[in-house]
């Protein structure tokens, strides 16, 4: 019985992998962002840009906002 249950589980797992490969063309593209980087994370981008314009990029406040924007971009699939 255990052998037949394992045989049933294997096609489901491989079927899922095939569906992912067909729809996303491989694992590298499966992690690709769905948006352009300029359109991702508009709220953190706006706050970051305003801070840099007012205080300069080396301001402690801005460094926190810059890092928050990077975290947001990474969550969207970008490698920054």
TrEMBL record:
<feature type="binding site">
    <location>
        <position position="38"/>
    </location>
    <ligand>
        <name>Cu cation</name>
    </ligand>
</feature>
<protein>
    <submittedName>
        <fullName>Cytochrome c oxidase assembly protein/Cu2+ chaperone COX17</fullName>
    </submittedName>
</protein>
<keyword id="KW-0186">Copper</keyword>
<keyword id="KW-0143">Chaperone</keyword>
<dbReference type="GO" id="GO:0016531">
    <property type="term" value="F:copper chaperone activity"/>
</dbReference>
<dbReference type="InterPro" id="IPR009069">
    <property type="entry name" value="Cys_alpha_HP_mot_SF"/>
</dbReference>
<keyword id="KW-0496">Mitochondrion</keyword>
<keyword id="KW-1015">Disulfide bond</keyword>
<keyword id="KW-0479">Metal-binding</keyword>
<dbReference type="Pfam" id="PF05051">
    <property type="entry name" value="COX17"/>
</dbReference>
<dbReference type="InterPro" id="IPR007745">
    <property type="entry name" value="Cyt_c_oxidase_Cu-chaperone"/>
</dbReference>
<dbReference type="GO" id="GO:0005507">
    <property type="term" value="F:copper ion binding"/>
</dbReference>
<feature type="binding site">
    <location>
        <position position="39"/>
    </location>
    <ligand>
        <name>Cu cation</name>
    </ligand>
</feature>
<dbReference type="GO" id="GO:0005758">
    <property type="term" value="C:mitochondrial intermembrane space"/>
</dbReference>
<comment type="similarity">
    <text>Belongs to the COX17 family.</text>
</comment>
<feature type="region of interest" description="Disordered">
    <location>
        <begin position="1"/>
        <end position="33"/>
    </location>
</feature>
């Amino acid at each position: 019985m255990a052998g037949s249950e394992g045989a049933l589980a294997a096609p489901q797992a491989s079927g899922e992998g095939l569906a992912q490969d067909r729809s996303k063309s491989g694992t590298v593209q499966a992690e690709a962002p769905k948006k352009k980087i300029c359109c991702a994370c508009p709220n953190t981008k706006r706050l970051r840009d305003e801070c840099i314009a007012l205080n300069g990029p080396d301001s402690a406040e801005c460094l926190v906002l810059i890092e928050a924007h990077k975290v947001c971009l990474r969550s969207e699939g970008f490698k920054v």
